[in-house]
Design a protein that fits this description.
The protein has an eight-stranded mixed sheet with strand order 3-2-1-4-5-8-7-6, sandwiched between helices. It is globular. By secondary structure, the chain is α+β, with helices and mostly antiparallel strands. The longest helix has 14 residues. It is built from five helices and eight strands. Helix content is about 25%, strand content about 25%. The structure holds two DNA strands.
Length: about 220
DNA sequence: GCGACAG
DNA sequence: ATCTTGTCGC
């Protein structure tokens, strides 16, 4: 698929903050997705003492979740891990992998937060804007926000709050299993995002898309 | 100032 | 994220 260049990648934290604050206003938090026929999962792994980034994308059919296409991109790591700036570390390699795809996914599930971020511009937002694809942030742990206890049954969820606003949902994707932290990435509403995450995770805690991408990035 | 901190 | 074996529990 085709990826348009939007901005150069920053060399300093101040430049990174400026990019996040300039782009956050472009995030769309309502449903602007077409019929979902293909869902993708992306993940980035690191090797060789952190100097190599390996991005993997897995495209599955929806709703049957069968693997349709995969892509891998290896690239020199150019940004350190800093909470709040994860996208600057992972997105460059992910864009290279997405560019190789023959099938343009209708929705991407990302490994990390969307607007559940201090400046409301987490990894899923950044990737969604740069790739111009609807995205959902599906994080395995809490970054910011507070929430009530979530019931143990699959499908139950609680709003994630920060500074008086709902920034995401804490969702139980499987009964009696640790919840996931879901937030809007781009071009999707929170309730629709919850629905897709549940439909993509029929059997395990993590969505099938993410499971495939994880596996591909570590091979 | 101190601690916490997506992957 | 990554380094790493077996092991407890549904």
């Amino acid at each position: 698929m085709k990826i348009e260049e939007r901005h150069p990648f920053p060399q300093t934290i101040d430049e990174a903050i400026a990019i996040q604050e300039n782009l956050r206003g472009e995030i769309i938090t309502t449903d602007q997705l077409s019929t979902v026929q293909y869902v993708a999962g992306v993940d980035v792994g690191f090797a060789e003492n952190d100097t190599l980034s390996v991005a993997a994308v897995a495209v599955l059919s929806f709703p049957d979740l069968e693997l349709q296409e995969k892509a891998i991109a290896k690239r020199t790591t150019t940004f350190p891990y800093l909470p709040g700036f994860l996208s600057f570390r992972e997105v460059p390699a992910v864009l290279e992998a997405l560019a190789q795809l023959t099938i343009a996914p209708d929705l991407i599930l990302c490994d990390g937060q969307g607007i559940a971020h201090p400046r409301r511009f987490g990894l899923a937002c950044h990737l969604g804007l740069l790739a111009n694809v609807p995205t959902i942030g599906v994080a395995k742990s809490l970054y910011i926000g507070e929430h009530e206890e979530v019931s143990p049954e699959r499908g139950s969820w609680q709003a994630l709050w920060d500074e008086g606003e709902v920034i995401g949902a804490v969702l139980r994707s499987q009964t009696n299993i640790k919840p996931l932290y879901i937030s809007i990435g781009h071009c999707i509403s929170l309730s629709t995002a919850i629905d897709y995450v549940l439909r993509c995770a029929p059997k395990y805690r993590l969505p099938e898309t993410t499971r495939w991408a994880d596996k591909l990035a570590s091979e």
